[in-house]
Fold each of these.
Amino acid sequence: MPSRPLPVGLLTSLAFVISFMYALYVAAFGLILPAVGAAFQVGAAAQGALFPASFGGGMVGVLLSGYLSDRLGRKPVGLLCLGVVVLGAGLFGTATAFPAALLAATLLGAGGAASQTVASALLSDLHPTRRPFYMNAIQIAFGVGAVVSTPLMQAFLTISGSWRYLFLLVGIGFAAILVTLSFCTVPEGERSGIDFTILGRLARHPALWLFCSSAAFYAGAEVAFFSWMPTLLQKEIPSGAGYAAGVGSLFWAAMTVGRALTGSIIHRFPLRRLRFLLASASAVTATMTLIIRTPEMLLTGVALTGLCFSGIFSVLLAEGSEGFPDTAGTVLGMTIASASIGVALLPYAVGAFVDVGASWRLSLGLVPLAAVLVALLATIRVPTNSL
């Protein structure tokens, strides 16, 4: 059966659904770790290995998918990425041995991150005059998925009694997206096939290095902040332990609200200036949060920091797709991969400082420091081009 044209609005909605679905299982992954450990009779260290497996897969996935979608087309590469998610979810839901679960986590990380990258590049193609708005909107879709993920998955686990059904359901959802996309025509510009020289020119472009460095500092600061904040509440805030469980949901709720607000102003400011303002505000609110001594006020600081952090990544993606429209997929992939490096390193650095005797407050000072670096990088003006 030949492909049929799909209205731009429906293709746009499909891209949002991909981002939402990706967030659903990424944000809830920690919830099912004890049950996974019990199922395979492995300890915490082995359970923790699922994260680098997923992270490594995601790194490879975004780099390959972004570049290949520029050269071969969004639709064929997007279908491949969705297929990898379906395979990974099916394998994770049916695995009988832990090595198979590790492989499945790698496939889930690669396919999910790659699918979101291609979806973002597709939005850049579909809306060339409103790229900043749609780069922010797809991040809102991810944020909504992250907010509802934990309570939704907890309810599902209570009803079904098994984490396996959860991933089988994820696989079915992505399979439905794959089938829908396969029967639709996706508008494609001219694709010239594999050309590795473009990668060399991009790798030498100073603007791309600025985007990637900013993404690494931002993402590392964001994840370190909301990941370690519950520990700070428990370790250094009197009566703070009872508030620790709600930090993640509060932070992501504030991020989602902030991204909605960013969408209303993103066309009113030059992107580089907006990145500077948001990063500077994030540095201030994160510092204030670390100074606060009462749990209620600390949670207020967490919410304010989430609001300020919320738009930075959207602005970075918009800058990349606006500056390099002909290679948007490759640039977005490199930017997202750089963010993953930051996520891997900065939260680890916070824990490492604590291990050598620093307090949690002092160690989490890396968060506002990274935000300051993002702001400083935004002051550097480097022309972009489409190569």
Note: The radius of gyration is 20 Å.
Amino acid sequence: MKDRLLVGLILMAVVAVAFALQVFFLLPILVCAVGLWEWWPLSKHPACAPWMRVGVPLGFLILPTASVLGLGDAGGLVLVILVALTDTVAYLAGRRYGRHKLAPTISPGKTWEGFASGVLLASAAVALSLSFFQGPPLFSFPELILLALLSQMGDLMESKLKRHLGIKDTGTWLRGHGGIMDRVDGFILAAPAAWLMSV
């Protein structure tokens, strides 16, 4: 748990520095490149169907990356914060208060208590933060709720993929987090949805 939180804090610091230096756009590209490199050996797994070899990198990495880039730096940063907060709060609340399993056959550690806490508290925190800035908010509170929900669903989709392949993690790059794809699964559905909301 300590490793997971420490790596999460370091990653958020990297995001903040990249945003401050106006090179935020490089992060999604880098993550996508590493994710594709990580997927290459997994695509040769015997359980990987032919359509998955193209469909997974396209749907799990390339489309979310293009969507984050399409949001611009400000919109992308808000989405990154929302997804990270949703995941972190769900994890902490689930460990502390979780009693009812959300999807035991897909992701045994996830609970309804963690799911609800992550969606509601992260959305409220981001909405409150956005209210301090001048101008219209990038996303309304209902939109933030929907994006947080989609973030959790993306997490379950990636967990389902891992169960199908019979693996625990997609890689070993991030200590306590599994692979890169484990870390960015919240963007699979949330990023395209956020882009559609912004156009």
Note: The chain has one domain: 2-198.
Amino acid sequence: MNFFKHLATVRRHRKAVRKLCFKVGLIRQGLTHDLSKYSKAEFQPGVKYYQGYRSPQAKEREICGYSAAWLHHKGRNKHHFEYWTDFADGKKVYVDMPPQYFAEMVCDRVAASKIYLGAKYTNASPLEYFESKTDIQGMNRQTAERLKYYLTMIKDEGEEKTFKALKKYVKDSKKKK
């Protein structure tokens, strides 16, 4: 039974992200978002630890002390800030995310909040999650500030205005190249 429930959750999440990515002009990223969730390394633990109200990776961490599925996922998906961590001279380096992956991250966070919270979702939910659950110590400072800015904009001004601004941010970044 968890197989079909997890599959449905992944599909709903991908559809929600796709819709938001399209608003930002990220067509290819919307279509390919989180395809690694269908891999054996991610899908099997997703079924095993499925709960429906939060990521199966959280349950896997509780039981195993870490999430192998998450380690697989973050290493293959550039829309996670953890992907942009490197090491140089024995120190961690947190790279500022490129605009197109940053925008996909915003879409991902909003969609995940909607999927897991359901009817309890409000425009404040993605910001609340960011402030309570995100390890900003492991995130580039500019990325963290930008993410808080856009999530606060969703809370205060709504999705329509925020995703228009996010689309402009991505478009303007392409002009600078």
Note: The longest helix spans residues 2-24.
